[in-house]
Amino acid sequence: MPRLTSGSTISEHRAHVESNLLDAFETVLADVGWDALTLRDVAVQAGVSRTVVYNYFRDRASMLIAWTGREMDQFLDLCERELAPAKGPVRRLELLVSLVLAEYACQRGPALEIHGVLSPADKAALMDHVEPLRDLVTHILRTGHDVGVMDCPDVDMAAQVVLAALESQRDALHQGGRLDDAAERLWPLVQRIIGVMS
Among 42, 94, 100, 197, which has the minimal tally of Cβ within 10 Å of its Cβ? Predict the structure, then answer.
């Protein structure tokens, strides 16, 4: 039986160790960037052996995928809390746009210029993390269209365009651009995309 250093069950212990490894990955990524990042560095940061890291992750791409999944889960939890009291789909979408832009502005470390070096399978796994956010935007747009405050009959396409518009602000915000400027530029465009009814 393995010695449990945290948690009362093996699953709790594994979840704790994995969380610590992902915290270490985040720190190393912010410090040295993707190109220089090694699992050895992550192990040192986490205070464990490389063998422990390999018990959880096959390589740095699998660690990146797990980390981005955790980040998205935490972001969606935040969205659920912040959007719950909002009155109406237009206000909900406005808040969501603000939250996404704020997330871009707060991201740590160098920009991840790694999409081109990932395998097709890893790229697909990384993109899967965006699906819940796309589903949330689509749900808001469908609700807005159904109740007559938005004119966007093709909500799937509108959701993709809204997400692309948000993505267009990522680099500028990551490099220190002003959040209020980005929101002021983007929100009128989003309103036109979704056909906000006055």
Answer: 197
